[in-house]
Amino acid sequence: MTRIDWPDRLNRLTDKEVRELFFDWAIWARAEQWPPEGSWTTWLLMGGRGAGKTRAGAEWVRSLVAGTAPVSPIALVSENLDEARRVMVEGPSGLLSVGVPANRPKFERGRQRLVWSNGAEAHLMSASDPERFRGPQFAAAWVDEAGKWPHAEAAWDMLQFALRLGDRPRQLVTTTPRPTRLIKRLLSEPGTVLTRMTTEDNRANLAPGFLSDVVGRYQGTRLGRQELNGELIEDREDGLWSRELVEACRTNEELRPERIVVAVDPAVSAKKNSDACGIIVAARAGEKALVLADRTLKPPRRWGGHGAWSVPSTNSMRMPLWSRPTRAVTWSKT
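^ thats the sequence. predicted structure below, dont judge the formating
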């Protein structure tokens, strides 16, 4: 295989070629920022803070309006018009900041719309006023942060009625995950394709201070799992313990366990659809009860004997059990 001398090749490029290379999204985009293949209606791009959702949305819109046969008009929907303007249009990854400057749209602030030189248009819409969707019609839509809309389902329904132009109306939803009725509804619809992104995926483009202070502080917590890892976290309606209650009991206090036990709640069967086998490592430390580890998983095929199945021991943890962030509750002697 012939080795490519990239520095030499780049040095021989003209200024125009370097400029085109710099603005070529196909080169710089990560795989999860690229539109999925197949026949989908809704692309749900769910990710953590700073994961690159906005850039992916702006580049998707730019690809739709490019050329002599652009997809137009496009709805740009956010919680309100101010957020649509600040994030989707004028933000550092917004539509006025991506692509070759000469090909960028003009923002008509008074009419709340973007206009490209080839005649394509994008209109800012507020999800806080669903009735505003009556009348306008669109060929595509970019929807931002649908997880925090105040009238989410009403606004979404009205938007669907407005997507009636062109051969194949599509919509992209970029949002931090929240277990709202709309997000869960979108996940269950057959026309939805889900893509997940994490803050860590975009580490190269984030400030070192953000990574050390914010990511370092919240990584591993419930809030961090949602806001950084892009996980959709929800409580079971029949659950005895809410996630909020569990997180409120988490502690970094150094507690030395007096007695450690492993509690096992085996499933009745070991079939594909069997319940999980509950395995909890717990301890007592003074008047505190600690949950040190949760190793709940699908039941093993067999217990004990030759070829016995085992659970990874908490002793394999690098730090002593009592120095790890744990969940603690007050011990009751009754």
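The radius of gyration is 25 Å.
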